[in-house]
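Possible race condition, two jobs.
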Amino acid sequence: MKLWCLAVLCLMVSVLHAPLAQAHFSDGTKVRSIILTEAPSGDTAYVRMPLGLAFADVTPADVDEQTAVATPFLYVGKQFDGAYGLWLSLDAVAQNKQAFAARLGQAVLWARGAGATQGRLRAYRIVGRMPQDAFDTLERAQRSIARDNAQLDPAFGEAWVEMAISLPPDAGGALAVLAGYPEFPTDVDIDNHVIDLRGDKGVQFNMPGQLQSPLLLDRTTITLFVLYLEQGVRHIVEGIDHMALVVAMTLGTMTAGAIAWRRLAILVTAFTLGHSITLGTSVFGLQPTWPFFIPAVETAIALSMIYTAVSALRGKSGAAGVYFGIGIVHGLGFSLMLSRILGPDSPQLVWSLFSFNLGIELGQLMIVVTTGLVSFGVQTVLGPRIERGAHVAILVAISVLALFYVVTRVGLLA
C-alpha cells in the first residue's frame, strides 16, 4: 500500500511540475543583446532588448480596463485576443522625446569600480515585434538601429527597443553592466548576451536573469571558461527532460542499491558522443530550419525519456547504440538553447563550446552520483523493498511526464 501511495505522489508531482519546469518545452525566454565597441572618442554599446525592461518600475502585474498606468507612454487597450493589455503610445513618445530617451538610457547602467552610471543615449529605434534578424555583429547592429521606427502603436508585451549608447569614460577596471530598474513584475525569462569587441580579440558573455546583479565583463580566459561551464551545468540540472533521462538511465543500471558502473559508463559515453556531435554541428549552423523542427526534436526527446524509463522498469539498461542516437537527439535539444548565445561568428566559439559541453558532463555526473547516494540511503534506512518501490514510482512518473510532453508537442507537428 505504501508503494502505491508513493507512486501516486510522484505522478502528482510530475504532472503539477510539468508546466513549470520545461527545458525545451517553453517559449518564454527573451534575449537582451549587447555589443560593445571601442573608438578613440570612447566606447559604445549597442543594445537590443524587450521594451518592457525599460518600464519595469511602472508596469502593473495585472491589467484590466480600470488599470491606471503611472507613465504617459503606456495606456490600456484591447489586444488582438480581446483581453485588455498595455500598449506603447507613439504620440506620447513623439511629444516627450527627451523624457522617453532618459527612461531608455536608465534601463541599462554601467559600472567601473564603485558606483554605476548611465551612458549617453545617442540613438534608438522602437520595433513593433520581436526582430528576426541577427544582432551579433557591429555591422548588423548599426544597420538595424538605422531602420525606421514602428509606425503603429505596438503591444507592450511584443515591443522591442534598440539603442546606441556612449559609455562613461574609462576610469580603469573591468566594466560591469546591470539593470537600472527593479525586476519586471511578471514571469519573464531573460538571457543576456554580451559581445565585447574591445581589445585585440572579441569575447562573449552570457548570463540569465534581469541583471539585478551586475554582470562583470572580465575578459580573462578563465572567466569565459567558468561562465560557459556554469551554463552547461545549469542547462542539464535545471532541465527536467535531460535530468529525468539521466536518472532513469542510472536506475536502469542499479541492482540492490548498487550501480553497475562499467555498464553506466558505456551508456553515458555513447550518450555523450551523440550529443557532442549534434551540439557542435548545430552551433556552426548545420541544422534544419523547418517550421516543425523544434517540435519534432522536443517530441523525440520525450520519447527517449519513455524508452529509458520503460527499459529500467523492465530491469534493462538499454543498448549503447540506442543511447548514441538518443544523445544525437538531446544534442539538438541542447543546441536550441545554445544557438541563442553562440553562433558561427561568435568570438572564441570553440573554447566556449568546449566549456559548455564540459559543464553538461559535470551536470550529468552530479545527477548520477546524487541518484546513487539517495538510492543507497533509501535501501539502508528503509530496506530493499521500499527502495525498489521508489524506483518504480520514479520511473512511472518520468514515463507519465514524458507522455504529457509527447501529447502537447505532437499537435504542433501538423
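Job #2 (started ~2 s after job #1):
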Amino acid sequence: MNRKNKVIQFAASLRLMAENILWKKEKPLDIHKNIDEIKQLHREYQLQKIELVSLNDKILIAKKEAEIAYEKFHNIYDFAPTGYFTFTIDGEITSLNISGARLLGYERNELINKNIQDFIAEESLPILKKFLIEVFTGDSKINCELMIAPQNSLPVFVMIEGVLNKYGEKCLATVIDITDRKKAEGRIIEREKNTERLYTLLRRITDNMPDMLWAKDLNNRYIFANKAMCEKLLNTKDTNEPVGRNDMFFAKRERATNPENQNWHTFGEICSASEEAVIKSGKTEHFEEFGNIKNQFLFLDVYKSPLFDEEGNIIGTVGAGRDVTKEKEIEKELLESEELYRKLVSTSPDAINMTDLDGNITFVSPKSLELFGYESNEHIIGCSIINWIAPENREKGIDNFNHVISNGFPLDKEYL
C-alpha cells in the first residue's frame, strides 16, 4: 500500500470516528424551534466553516514557509565557511556542519559522538578543557585559540567561541581557521624583531661615532639624535629627550642657567635657517655653524640633506656635524704665522727664493726681483732656478741644489 492510500484510509477512519461521536452526542431535532434560530445557527456554521478553511490555508502557507526557512537554515548551517559544533561538557560532539568536519579531516557522520579532544594537539588540550569548564560554569561567550591536528594534514590554528544553549546542557560553538592570521602575526612579530635589531644596531653605530648625527621633521623637531649630538650640543640627559623638541628649546633652557652671561650659549637660531635652506633646495648643502656652548666656542663643519619618504616627498632633514674647533684654531694660527712670514720675507734685505723639488721657482721676494731686475714675478714663477746662475757656476749650483734635496742643507759654496 502506497502513502496516498494510507492517507485516504486514515481520513476515512477519522470521519467514521467523528460521526460515531457526533451520533452519541446528538439530540433529537426539535422541530418546534423557531425557524429564524435555525437559520442563525446555519449561518454561524457556514461562517465557522469559512474561517476554518481560511485558517487551514494559512497553516499550510506557514508550514510551507517553515519548510523553506528550515531548508535555508540547514543550507546556511551546512555550507557556512565557519565550523559549527555542539559539545557536551566532556567534549563529545553531538552535531556539526560540513565546514567543521572538513576542519577535522573526516566525514560529518564519522564525527558524531566522537570527542573533540581526540582532534586537539596535545599542547592545546589544557586550553580546551579550561574553555569547556568556563562555558558550562558561566553565562557569557567564551573564546580561546588552540591548535587542532586534522587527519592527514598539517596542524591548524583555530579560534573557538562558545556559549551554553538555553537549556544549559550543551555548548554551541563556532570554530574559525586562523592559521593564515597566525602566520601573518608570526611574520609581523619577526619583522618587528628584525626592525628592533636593526634599530639597536643603528643606535650603537651612531652612538659610537664622534660626529654629531640627527634627523628632524619639517617643523625642525628632532626625530633622532645620536649620543655625540646630545652630549656636545644639546646637553640632554639621554638620546630620547630631544625627540619632539627643536634647537631653540635646548638653547633657551641652557641660556636660562646663566642669564647674566649673554655669551653662555649662542648656538640655536643659525641651525633652523640652514635646515630651511636645505628643504627649499631639495639637495645636500654644506654649512659652517659656530657659537658658544657653555661659554666655550664650538665650530662645526656640517652637511645637511633632505629626508625623503618612499614616494619621494620631503618629510624632514638629516644632518652630520663634525667638531672642527681645534682645526679652525690651528688654521687661524697658521694663517697668522703665514702672514707674519710674508711680512718678514717682504721686508728682508736678503733675496729669498723658493722652488719645488725640480728646481722650478714658486716664490721670489721683492729683494730678489730688485736684484735680478724684474718688476714682477710674472716671468719668473715656474722658471728653473738654475737659469739665474752664471753658466760657469751652474754645475756648482746643481750640486748644491741636489745636496739640499738629499740632506736638507746646502753646501758652503759661493757662486754667481
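The mean pLDDT is 84.
Logs attached separately.
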